[in-house]
Amino acid sequence: MSPQSLSQATEAIPVSPPVMVLEDEQPVETPQSTNTRFNEQRNRRTRWNEWLLDVFAMNSFSWAIAIPIELVLAGMSWSEHLKVRLLAVVFNTLIARPFSLYRNWVVGRFGRGGALHNYGVDTFVFLSFQLPLYILNMLLGGASSGEIATACITFMLIAGALGRPYGMYLDCLRRLWLSRRVEADSAVTS
């Protein structure tokens, strides 16, 4: 048989590539895959901690401001105040993180500046986020258009005075939280 006829003969034989079957194959952990998993857990924990910080900031600030307004100015009893505040805790918990994300976006868009600029940005954020929610709450509560108008004017005056203090309070809590996290992270890696 000639070499040429041998190659022609073997071309007709179907050959498949070798197949290796591994049973119970387990993924191999590499430093990169371990770091990825660690970073995913860390990001989840960071998002959770940011949510907790935003909820704490919104509720604690709201309660501190509501005490003199509701008890002194409005003349509410302690039991009425507690009922209103407990309901506010639910609503504040729902809106705290979206408000904080919105504030971050607006501040990122307009930047930081002098005291007047920062006051304007925080007041805009507070009014543009909270006023529509306040109006919706009053509409759902059955308030008349005159009551809504009066309440909105009052709310705008109060929000104008509270927007920047809340922004400063939130920034202060974030700085405290960030320094605590940096210390905790450095203790873990050491």
Characteristic key phrases:
elongated, 82% helix, mainly alpha, 190 residues
Any overview of this molecule?
It comes from Microbulbifer pacificus. Keywords: Amino-acid transport, Cell inner membrane, Cell membrane, Membrane, Transmembrane, Transmembrane helix, Transport. The chain is mainly α. The chain has a domain at 53-183. It is built from five helices and no strands. Helix 2 packs across helix 3 and helix 4 crosses helix 5. The protein is elongated, with a radius of gyration of 30 Å.
Give the amount of beta strand, in percent: under 5%
Radius of gyration: 30 Å
Distance between the first and last residues' Cα? 74 Å
Number of strands: 0
Instruction: Summarize model confidence as the mean pLDDT.
Output: 79
Q: Helix coverage percent of residues?
A: over 70%
The general outline is elongated
Poorly predicted ranges? none
Structural class: mainly alpha
The major pleated sheet works out as:
none
Q: What's the quick description here?
A:
The protein has helices at 3-11, 31-73, 78-110, 115-140, 145-189. The protein is built from 5 helices and no strands.
